[in-house]
Design a protein that fits this description.
The complex is a heterodimer of chains A (347) and B (265). Chain A is of the alpha+beta class. The longest helix of chain A has 18 residues. Chain B contains eleven helices and no strands. The radius of gyration of chain B is 23 Å and the shape is globular. Chain B starts with a helix and ends with a helix. The chains are: A alpha+beta (347), B mainly alpha (265). The structure holds adenosine-5'-triphosphate and magnesium ion. The site of magnesium ion has 3 residues of chain A, from helix 1.
């Protein structure tokens, strides 16, 4: 997964693109380099500008400034219908008055491909997304949510784009099916070898599928890296918190000292420790140790989450089921974490 | 509920349906019957059954002229109102602008205006502009009244229209024109057919607005009204029956053509 060995050639790059709606800078000076065949995910909270950015990349909107290069060629002014890219919309935007086959064949029909060739191509695409042949003549309105998802994918693939954009295509789908489709999406990416640029507000989803993740906040990309890097080395509290529950120690406020941690050893103003790195340290084997009382426990399936009270500071720890056995609310004891697992943050 | 209760209900329901149908069709039937008389007095049963009135109606220049006037107005109303209403409905479906709700109410206001008041208002307006009323001004007046209704009819059919479909089509390589032909028009088509039928029938049968705004030209309903009031003869119901048949034929033709317009491509 972390093979930095053979650098892949770039396919899409942006240089300082911005777009404003009135006073609001929805996309603010975004520059990215995306490699050929990469699964690149942009994650951010609602309203951070993800859709605005991807619409600009797809050619559906024009940026106010900056430019977009496709294999080194400036395509900033090229409209969507002339770009070798295709987008899967959040609403899927299937053509509701048509059949599955007609939806998938649309791009070919626009190119003037003959009916038989179109049909053959559509059936091949249906095979790629694992949609049974019988669905060819069915109206799209009679397909289930998951099937419509596949129709949208097949329709996008049928136009043979170099880059596929996805704007939260799974957000309206229930949890179980979403998990299945996430895996299929990743599988599809591998099989087609195309560049996928994916948008979601779920970092969990991004982690599962992506080669690289960019975190977006208020119109800017604040951190870009592999899922591993984003998870292990968040560069800001925003990224750390976006990743789920974390323990953030403010170095300056003296709490660390109260916990018995020598603040002098840490130069950054904040220290972030993920719940799974906090562990009972009764035998004194952790770099940093403090006393805490277990206030609550929550069963999360394979892991158990504990809420701790360390002299007034609330902390969260997560232990695998085996290690969690025997720890109950009310227990007071030594807890700790290692230096290597704590991430110092500037803001 | 018991079985006998059920069947009693069913009988009651059938009778109710019968009454409604009678109420609807007896007046039409009686117009047909009246047209088959040869006297100036409405009386039944006729002493002499005759088709003279029809011969007279078809023979006179007036009948053709009345139909032509009403038809010209109706066709103009259909064309103009469908075009305006389609754009209006699309604007509603496509753009979520401030004041959209208010506009939706305002655009419907003329519907709630009493028609004679609207007719009078438009006549005053036209006179103020120095325009001499004729069938064209009547068509304009009908349009003012009909456009909101047709907009509503088309909007209802567009209610579940996802405008992202147009972007998706564009993104899949369609030109603007192809997007319109392949996506927008098929979505609009059923509404356009219904809206056109509404526009036609509302204009064809309108009296209160025409009275004020048609000037020297006479529409079919106007003529029927004035001849019934002052100079009645079986010619009047005969012309009415011909007019009904003409509009029914047009509506049936449109209904038959509907699958052609709304067919899947
Ligand atoms: N057409 C528009 N006109 C005015 N403001 C807009 C327009 N489109 C987006 N915005 C604003 O720009 C900001 C970014 O919107 P955008 O849709 O890109 O966010 P997003 O990250 O995709 O959010 P979400 O996760 O909710 O889809 C928001 O504050 C939004 O209100
Ligand atoms: Mg969005």
């Amino acid at each position: 997964m972390v093979e930095a060995s053979e650098p892949r050639p770039g396919i899409l790059s942006t240089h300082g693109i911005s777009k404003s709606f009135g006073e609001l800078r929805a996309v603010d000076d975004v520059s990215i380099e995306i490699a050929d065949g990469e699964f690149f995910t942009i994650v951010g909270p609602s309203g951070s500008g993800k859709s605005t950015l991807v619409r600009i990349l797809a050619g559906l909107d024009r940026p106010d400034s900056g430019n977009i290069l496709l294999r080194g060629e400036d395509i900033t002014a090229t409209p969507a219908n002339a770009r070798p890219t295709c987008m899967v919309f959040q609403s899927l935007a299937l053509f509701t008055h048509r059949t599955v086959g007609e939806n998938i064949e649309f791009s070919q029909k626009m190119k003037g491909v003959a009916r038989d060739a179109r049909r053959e191509h559509a059936l091949r695409m249906m095979e790629v997304v694992r949609l049974p042949r019988e669905y060819y003549a069915r109206p799209v309105t009679q397909c289930s949510g998951g099937e419509q998802q596949r129709v949208a994918l097949a329709r996008a693939l049928a136009s043979d784009p170099e880059i596929l954009f996805f704007d939260e295509p799974l957000s309206a789908i229930d949890y179980r099916l979403r998990k299945i489709l996430e895996v299929e999406m990743k599988d599809l990416h591998r099989r087609t070898g195309k560049t996928f640029i994916y948008i979601t507000h779920s970092l969990e989803e991004a982690m599962v599928m992506s080669d690289r993740i960019a975190i977006m906040r208020s119109g800017t990309l604040i951190q870009t890296g592999t899922p591993h890097e984003i998870y292990r080395r968040p560069e800001s509290r925003f990224v750390a918190e976006f990743m789920g529950e974390v323990n953030i120690f403010t170095v300056a406020d003296g709490r660390l000292a109260e916990l018995g941690i020598a603040a002098a050893q840490i130069e950054a103003p904040y220290l972030v420790v993920r719940p799974e790195y906090l562990r009972p340290a009764g035998n004194g084997d952790a770099d940093f140790r403090f006393r805490a009382e277990v206030t609550n426990d929550y069963m999360l399936g394979s892991r158990t989450q504990f809420h701790l009270d360390a002299g007034g500071t609330s902390l969260v720890a997560e232990l695998p089921a085996l290690a969690a056995a025997g720890i109950a609310p009310g227990d007071v004891g030594e807890w700790g974490f290692d230096r290597a697992d704590a991430v110092p943050l500037a803001d | 509920m018991t079985g006998s209760n059920n069947s009693a209900l069913r009988v009651l329901r059938s009778m109710w349906l019968l009454v409604v149908l009678l109420l609807l069709y007896v007046p039409i039937a009686s117009v047909v019957l009246a047209s088959l008389a040869n006297t100036r007095y409405m009386r039944f049963p006729h002493r002499v059954w005759s088709l003279d009135a029809y011969a007279q109606a078809l023979g006179t220049y007036t009948t053709a002229n009345l139909h032509l006037t009403s038809l010209s107005i109706a066709v103009a109303v259909v064309i103009v109102s469908v075009i305006i209403a389609s754009f209006g409905a699309l604007a509603f479906a496509r753009y979520d602008w401030a004041g959209r709700k208010l506009f939706r109410r305002l655009v419907l206001l003329p519907v709630f205006f009493p028609q004679p008041v609207l007719g009078l208002a438009l006549l005053l307006y036209l006179t103020a502009l120095g325009i001499v009323p004729d069938w064209k001004t009547a068509a304009f007046a009908h349009i003012v009244w009909v456009v909101p209704i047709v907009t509503l009819v088309i909007s209802i059919r567009l209610y579940h229209y996802d405008v992202a479909q147009e972007e998706a089509a564009f993104d899949l390589g369609a030109t603007r024109l192809q997007v319109f032909r392949e996506i927008t028009l098929p979505a609009l088509a059923p509404g356009i057919v219904s809206g056109a039928l509404f526009a036609f029938l509302l204009s064809w049968s309108n009296l209160p607005i025409s009275v004020f705004t048609s000037g020297a030209d006479t529409t079919l309903p106007e003529w029927l009204y004035s001849r019934t009031a002052t100079n009645y003869s079986p010619l009047v119901p005969a012309v009415a029956v011909i007019g009904t048949a003409a509009s029914a034929a047009i509506v049936l033709l449109a209904a038959a053509l509907r699958p052609v317009f709304t067919r899947k491509r």
